[in-house]
Amino acid sequence: MKKKKASAFLLAVVLVAFVFAALPADASILDDIAFMVVNDNIMELKTNTMPFIQSGKYYVPYTIFSDLSLGVYPFYDTSNYRLTLLNKRASLTFDSPKGVAYDREKQYNEKLVGRNGTVYVPIEFVCEYFGLEFQYASVQPAPIYRIILPGGSSLSTFRGNARDMLSAVYAKYITGIYIDSETSSPPGASPGTQVTPSAAPATPTPSAPPPPKMVYITFDSMPSQDTELILDILDAASAKATFFLLGSAVRENPGATRRIIGSGHQVGLCGYTGSDAMLESPAALTDELLRTNELLNVISGKKTRLFRFIQGSDDKTVTAEMRDALIFAGYRYWDWTVRAGGLPGEPVSTAVNRIITALNGSGSSVVISFGTGEDTPEILAKVLEYINSNDYIIRLIYASEMPINRHGDVRTELLRPQQ
């Protein structure tokens, strides 16, 4: 994210103090009440529309961007727990399971927060990213959070023009709480007894549930002799996977490759020969991928920009220049967080337990790498049984997905160097 010059684009934190008239003197019961204002529109006071401060950061509900006057549009993918905000110039995605945000160039240590049954965004970061202005006023009896387009009216001007409206909104909210309190009688009191409340009713406000763990099921050096059986097992479990293809294997078994694609699975590449020669230079690497993509296009009409190093991107023979060449050619590379097999003589139960341990670990996403071993179908069946009986979501890998790799490399392209 490029830094902006000191201008109206910078965030404005305005600290003022004024008192609303004709409101209850004891406002301590309403410490969490705050006004959310978009340009000059005051949002209704509800638990799922009011902003808050957490760990020194200001958070507001993402739904405030439904007010199209800000020029930023929200798209929340409920199945994958991802929120994308975009305008004509930029796109920013928050990945809730991974606890980060990212765009085409980099990853940011910013996350969504669940509260009151909705999703909140770190508004200072979002405003700076999209060139909006954020204003905050610490006032009594309720602070104001305001987001405006650059060049909009100052918070003090807004406050002066909206004083009566703010007072009315707040008074209406207070009245609602008092009416709710006075409709019930304390133990021992006669029905209908009027009671002056000393505190707001203790009504718990549910937080948005944490998203379930995301699982990526992937296969390397495909297709193999067991691909048809693997596809049968995936079909029986109604599961989708990502297959990283080896060009030479695709040439020998085009039928299985077509079935992979036709069944709705995703495909990536892991080279053509799979030999050490492909890692002799950046050019050798990209040439193998180009060759595999051309073959894939001939037999299926499809190309892909996903890639996996067979031994992982932390292999000693993988250089920074190779990774740069991949990005420059338009690829995104993925590693894994746990491998299903690969250890000679390892029992199936050991491999399954290793994957289950990873699934129950602290990470928000698990990438399982299955190889071409003869035990792969059996391991897969047992792992799918465990996944489907627990709270996990199986996710496909797309080129637009933020990759998981050893280097945290989320780039989608490199600019050509100056000549």
Description:
The chain has 419 residues and is of the alpha/beta class. It has two domains: 12-182, Copper amine oxidase-like, N-terminal domain (Copper Amine Oxidase, Chain A, domain 1, 2-Layer Sandwich); 213-394, Alpha-Beta Barrel (TIM Barrel). It has nine helices and 22 strands. It has helices at 123-130, 155-182, 227-236, 247-252, 254-262, 282-300, 320-328, 348-359, 376-388; strands at residues 12-13, 35-38, 41-42, 52-54, 57-61, 73-77, 82-86, 91-95, 100-102, 107-108, 113-115, 118-122, 133-137, 144-148, 213-222, 242-245, 266-269, 306-307, 332-333, 338-339, 365-370, 392-394. Strand 4 (52-54) and strand 5 (57-61) form a beta hairpin.
In short:
By secondary structure, the protein is an alpha/beta fold. The protein has 9 helices and 22 strands.
Blueprint (SSEs and pairs):
Blueprint: E1 12-13, E2 35-38, E3 41-42, E4 52-54, E5 57-61, E6 73-77, E7 82-86, E8 91-95, E9 100-102, E10 107-108, E11 113-115, E12 118-122, H1 123-130, E13 133-137, E14 144-148, H2 155-182, E15 213-222, H3 227-236, E16 242-245, H4 247-252, H5 254-262, E17 266-269, H6 282-300, E18 306-307, H7 320-328, E19 332-333, E20 338-339, H8 348-359, E21 365-370, H9 376-388, E22 392-394
Parallel strand pairs: 1-13, 2-14, 15-16, 15-21, 15-22, 16-17, 18-19, 20-21
Antiparallel strand pairs: 2-3, 4-5, 5-12, 6-7, 7-8, 8-9, 9-10, 11-12, 13-14
- Strand tally is 22
Shape, principal axes of CA atoms: elongated
N→C terminal distance: 25 Å
Main sheet characteristics? 6 strands, parallel
Helical/strand content category:
alpha/beta
Which CATH architecture of the largest domain would you pick? Alpha-Beta Barrel
Give the C-level CATH assignment of the largest domain. Alpha Beta
Number of helices: 9
Helical content, roughly? Answer: 25-40%
